[in-house]
Amino acid sequence: MKTTKIALFMAALMFAPSAFAYEITPYVGLGIVVDKANTSAKRVAFDRSNLNNLTMDNIQTAMGSAFLPNAGSNMDFDMAFAGEITAGVKIDNVRLEAEVAIRSASEDDYNIFDGNINIQGDLFDQIVLPLEIETATTVRHNSYLFNMFYDFDFGTRWTPYVGAGIGLGVYHQKAIVDIDIEEEKFLALNQPIGQHMLPMVQQFEREMTVADDTLYRFEWQVSAGVAYNFDEDWVLDLGYRFNSATVGGEFVYAHEVKLGARYMF
Predict the structure, then answer these.
(1) Which residue segment(s) compose the domain that 109 sits in?
(2) Model-level pTM?
């Protein structure tokens, strides 16, 4: 029995060094990301059916109720830039990493109405109000993710890798509409009272916030790329990522190209 215990103890001493033989290297990094976001989320819609029986007294309230968030066509975000900060540890060929990324996406003004609405009045039977209405959406998107990567070490300065990550996405969305009265058209359509009524209707030209929400959602991403060890301590990183979440019941995703640098301690 004593001999067995001694043998187990000796085996443990022999295998213990190999259990800690992996090289453990902490690192920090910075990255710049080119981001093209896509989504099935909808633009603001303009419901003209809410504008029946308009008068000068109720037009402001009616106009506000005519805008419907998330009821129009799919949004199409412009390409944007993002930044990230990372910190992690490399254990042999595996990297474990915490990432904080700050993203933004926006959509240029999109026309949702270009036409005429009618306003009834006491001093006039009816005036025709030609409107052009545009909407724009901005999204600020911050990510807090835990990533895991596998580096394919071929014994050269170039190291391909694949990875995946999960975490929390914070989405702040703001949608606005811009109401513009086409003045020359208004004067032409409302002779001879147009010049008299124009200052009165111009008060309805405005920019309105239709949606302003902050949502917290589970987020994930997958990635692949290649790193270049140009120095003992410094690594350049070029990679592709697919980042995704479900926000407000809609699928939101982004194709990203990242250029980063890591400092290995």
Answers:
(1) 22-264
(2) 0.79
